[in-house]
Design goal:
35% of the residues lie in helices and 33% in strands. It is built from three helices and four strands. The N and C termini lie far apart (62 Å).
């Protein structure tokens, strides 16, 4: 047996060498989906004008109390997309897509960015596909949402709060 094989065998038998994954996804689920096509079939006809698109993504994290699982969270991503051409709304779609996750082996201070950056990053491709399928089923071209930089969104939403808290600590 080569030295490399011995090292691999030792690593597989020693649980301390293999790091524990800090995030476990227990379930992913669609909490709510709405698709409105208020002016169909009129808006399904092509008129050469591109629709104006509005899109909004919001995130919500709730800690779930569980006797069997520590640090259990429900992470929700809400995506709202609306297409308007002229004075007519073509479609409105709202999706709430969630994951039930637990965080293991991390300082509680590190839970927040993990839940607001990494979990949405993992959920987004699934939510994107659902939105695409819904718009296509509504008679339109599939809406392909652009990738989202959840880290920048996190810093935009929570970065100022963290900077203000640090400044307050320094002033004390």
């Amino acid at each position: 047996m080569s030295e490399e094989d011995k090292t691999l065998n030792q690593a597989s038998s020693d649980d301390n060498i293999v790091p524990q994954v800090p995030l476990v996804v227990h379930a992913q689920y669609m909490k709510d989906l709405s698709f409105e096509n208020p002016h169909a079939p009129e808006t399904l006809r092509k008129d050469g004008h591109a629709p104006k698109m509005e899109m909004d993504i919001s995130l919500d994290v709730n800690k779930i109390e569980d006797d069997n699982i520590e640090n259990l969270y429900d992470v929700g991503m809400i995506i709202r997309a609306k297409a308007v051409r002229g004075d007519k709304t073509m479609f409105i779609t709202d999706l709430s897509y969630n994951a039930l996750v637990s965080v293991n082996g991390l300082d509680e201070k590190k839970h927040h960015p993990l839940l607001f950056i990494e979990v949405p990053h993992m959920l987004f491709p699934f939510a994107r596909q659902i939105i695409s399928d819904a718009t296509q089923a509504g008679g339109y071209m599939p809406l392909q949402l652009n990738p989202v930089d959840f880290r920048s969104l996190y810093l935009e939403r929570f970065g100022k709060k963290n900077n203000n808290q640090e400044e307050e600590k320094k002033a004390s």
